[in-house]
Design brief:
Largest sheet of chain A: 3 strands, antiparallel
Structural class of chain A: alpha+beta
Helix content of chain B: 55-70%
Strand content of chain A: 5-15%
Number of strands of chain B: 2
Shape of chain B: globular
Shape of chain A: elongated
Helix content of chain A: 10-25%
Structural class of chain B: mainly alpha
Strand order of the largest sheet of chain A: 2-3-5
Largest interface: A-B, 19 and 19 residues
Oligomer: heterodimer
Order of helices and strands of chain B: HHHEEHHHHHHHHHH
Number of helices of chain A: 4
Radius of gyration of chain A: 25 Å
Largest sheet of chain B: 2 strands, antiparallel
Strand content of chain B: under 5%
Radius of gyration of chain B: 22 Å
Distance between the termini of chain B: 72 Å
Strand order of the largest sheet of chain B: 1-2
């Protein structure tokens, strides 16, 4: 029987492949079926809002400073109580991320003092020209929460003086 | 030589070419589907139901691709090489019978294009022409990888063609004829795969090398040679080379089915029933289709299972194992036939298969011994 060993080895290989033929395919029919992403998945960025609708982003540009790919551009302007976008003095009047430069490292998340920028679940990014790859603030910002007011809001003086909120430890 | 006869030939030839071209298209789909299933995937399923329109989509893609020609390529040969490769693959099937004679429109219509009395020899000679296409494609591309792919495939195809040709001799001896129809008729009671199992095994291995399929796809070794002899081809010219490769698979499966697996004949246990081709002649093409289908699955299955073997080992296997073994098998077959003429059919039905199996075992044993000695030398 030792003589037959080369043939038996070949046969075992063939048997293994034949057996997998009758296994259930592992294919996921992608555009129709999508696998849920992992909790810490780093997809497209989302700019968060508070429950009352004010933007969390205060335009400090720490994310732009932290970005290793130099993908983020922030320009800030002054908040007033008549036209208030975010708590505190300033808000991001321009917020752009170049999705072609971004490497999805998540450093911007870590750098953000107000947890305004978060890497979300969206991973289906496509564009047909370079201009479209630059996502402006309108595309990044989260939809208004229920019973939140759109920005700019008219607020009472002295209510939103503190730009960085009291924070909890990160959950996940 | 009346007009109807010429018309009959034209129609038969047309049907054969259509079957081969359609067969090529759907063989690619079959291969992709089978490979996918072996790898626990689904395979193409977007174009049409079950991906049935996928070959058409591929064809459209290839037609609209840009045709590139490398600078300083030999233009004439570069254009001619795909044709030289494809044509033998198509004409080789002319001698393969796909069924017993049919009676249609008051005429006896034979289901083959040509009944050459040296049909097997015809196959050998036409098959070796295809080598020219491959080596010319490699040479005319003005690309070192293509050149090496072409050279490798020539060396490989010539080496294995000898072993392949010698297994054909076994079938010729058993049938006492080189005419394909007579070889098929000789397998009425018992297929040659049962009489000559080791010969069939050599045939199946050598065909893989002959059509450059895994695990002998050295000419196309992506890791070393990018795509081998068709590196520089694109668009329809690439499609022709690709078509030649798959049509060669079909052709060689047809030949294998004819020489060793009973051709268009039914399975021996179905003889003298309604399912035999003597009673229902139109079942002939169905049977040969089934056999080709199974043989093609074997090729795909082997591709999905075994990694590519090293080039020197490929050559050593061809020259040192397959060639002597096939010579021994011819000797055994001829001796068995002579003995059976003298001492009765027992030697024919038992002597030849047992001798063939024994020779095969000894060959395997020698491979085993060499491998063990190498292992010992390495340790």
């Amino acid at each position: 029987m030792r003589v037959l060993e080369p043939v038996i080895e070949l046969g075992r290989g063939l048997w293994t492949t034949l057996r997998t033929m009758f296994e259930k395919p592992v294919t996921i029919q992608y555009p129709e079926q999508k696998r849920p992403v992992k909790p810490r998945f780093r997809g497209r960025h989302v700019l968060k809002r508070y429950e009352n609708g004010l933007e969390k982003c205060i335009g400090c540009a720490l994310c732009a400073a932290a970005c290793p790919a130099d993908a983020i551009f922030v320009e800030s302007s002054e908040n007033t109580d008549e036209k208030r976008y975010s708590p505190g003095d300033r808000y991001a009047s321009t917020y752009e991320i170049n999705m072609l430069r971004c490497i999805y490292c998540g450093f911007c998340e870590d750098a953000c003092p107000t947890e305004a920028i978060v890497l979300g679940d969206q991973y289906e990014l496509s564009f047909t020209d370079r201009r479209q790859a630059i996502y402006p603030k309108e595309m990044l910002i989260e939809a208004l929460p229920t019973n939140g007011q759109p920005t700019p809001q008219k607020t009472r003086p002295g209510e939103f003086t503190r730009s960085v909120p009291a924070m909890k430890d990160p959950q996940d | 030589m009346d007009f109807a006869l010429i018309l009959e030939w034209l129609i038969k030839g047309f049907i054969l070419v259509l079957v081969l071209l359609g067969g090529f298209a759907y063989l690619t789909l079959y291969e992709r589907k089978a490979l996918a299933r072996i790898q626990a995937r689904i395979g193409p399923n977007r174009a049409g139901p079950w991906g049935l329109l996928q070959p058409i989509a591929d064809a459209i893609k290839l037609v609209f691709k840009e045709e590139l020609m490398p600078a300083r390529a030999d233009k004439l040969l570069f254009l001619l090489a795909p044709v030289i490769t494809l044509v033998p693959a198509l004409v080789i099937t002319a001698v393969v019978p796909w069924g017993p004679p049919l009676r249609l429109f008051g005429r006896e219509i034979s289901l083959y294009i040509a009944d050459v009395n040296v049909g097997v020899l015809y196959i050998m000679s036409v098959a070796s022409i295809a080598v020219y296409g491959v080596v010319l494609a490699g040479w005319s591309s003005n690309n070192k990888y293509a050149m090496m792919g072409g050279l490798r495939s020539t060396a490989q195809m010539i080496s294995y063609e000898i072993a392949l040709g010698l297994t054909f001799v076994g079938a010729i001896l058993l049938a006492d004829s080189a005419r394909m129809t007579e070889i098929v008729d000789a397998q009425r009671s018992v297929w040659f795969v049962l009489l000559q199992p080791a010969g069939t095994a050599i045939f199946l291995i050598a065909t893989l090398a002959e059509v450059n399929r895994a695990p002998f796809d050295m000419p196309e070794a992506e890791q070393e040679l990018t795509a081998g002899y068709h590196t520089e081809y694109s668009g329809m010219k690439f499609a022709l080379l690709f078509m030649a490769e798959y049509d060669k698979m079909i052709a060689i499966s047809c030949i294998g089915a004819t020489l060793f697996f009973g051709g268009y004949r039914e399975f021996p246990f179905l003889a003298n029933t309604i399912f035999s081709v003597d009673q229902t002649p139109w079942l002939g093409p169905v049977y040969i289709f089934l056999k080709v289908f199974v043989l093609l699955f074997g090729m795909i299955w082997v591709r999905a299972t075994f990694p590519r073997i090293r080039y020197d080992r490929l050559m050593a296997f061809g020259w040192k194992i397959l060639l002597p073994l096939s010579l021994v098998l011819i000797f055994i077959t001829a001796t068995g036939i002579l003995l059976s003429q003298k001492y009765g059919l027992g030697y024919y039905y038992w002597g030849i298969p047992l001798g063939s199996l024994l020779a095969g075992l000894i060959a395997i044993g020698m491979v085993d011994r060499t491998l063990r000695r190498k292992e010992y030398a390495r340790a």
